[in-house]
Design brief:
This protein has helices at about 1-10, 35-45, 50-55, 65-75, 100-110, and strands spanning about 50, 80, 95. By secondary structure, the protein is mainly alpha-helical.
Length: about 110
């Protein structure tokens, strides 16, 4: 009996720092910033480039790291876009700057001059 009551108990505090989604009253918001990695990525995009071309220019070898720290952040911030948005996993997928990405790239160039 006691074990069943414990399992049914509503936990309203984090366990080991982890809060379940159903314990939150609000949807968590993620704040994305233009990181140094994204700034480097923006500086390398001229026209359209594939993932492997960008990784080569940035001298990166770990595809997962590149995706997480560079591509996904830049895509989420709408700084770059896919040339084939309907097929994100296409082997011929390429990326290009958006207007917003071009503006940030130009600001960065002005600051570094």
């Amino acid at each position: 009996m006691q074990v069943q009551n414990i399992l049914k108990k509503n936990i309203s505090r984090p366990i080991n720092g982890v809060v379940k989604a159903d314990q939150l009253n609000e949807t968590p918001q993620v704040t994305l910033q233009v990181t140094p990695q994204v700034t480097q990525l923006l500086g390398r995009i001229k026209g359209t480039k594939s993932r492997s071309q960008l990784m080569h220019e940035l001298n990166l070898k770990d595809r997962m790291n590149f995706s997480r720290k560079y591509l996904e952040v830049a895509l989420a911030l709408n700084l770059i876009e896919r040339t084939q948005p309907d097929t994100p996993n296409s082997p011929t997928q390429k990326y290009r700057l958006t207007v917003k990405g071009q503006q940030i790239k130009n600001k960065g160039m002005e600051l570094s001059e």
